[in-house]
Amino acid sequence: MDVIRDLPGLKSADKDKVIKALVGDKADLIDVDSLSATMFDKRIKSVYDPNYSTPYSSQLKPVLENGLSTFLLDKLTPEAAQKQMIDEANKIIQQNKK
Question: Which superkingdom does the taxonomy of this entry point to (predicted)?
């Protein structure tokens, strides 16, 4: 079985080509309409938008990763975990504005 490593990040990607690459000749095993709706619904927001890239993005990534780990492992509420991540991210942002 081939492993697909990359999905296109462009919203303008040809959805039919992407679905065909994912499904191949196994359309009888996959609900293609659901897959297409899941991947290409206009309400879905991309995780990464290069328009919001900053020189300190690499410093912010661990905030998200550590926040998720803390949420899952330390059983924080979603609100507490979010506040913790926002506070940490704001510290990094303020340090880089100086």
Answer: Bacteria
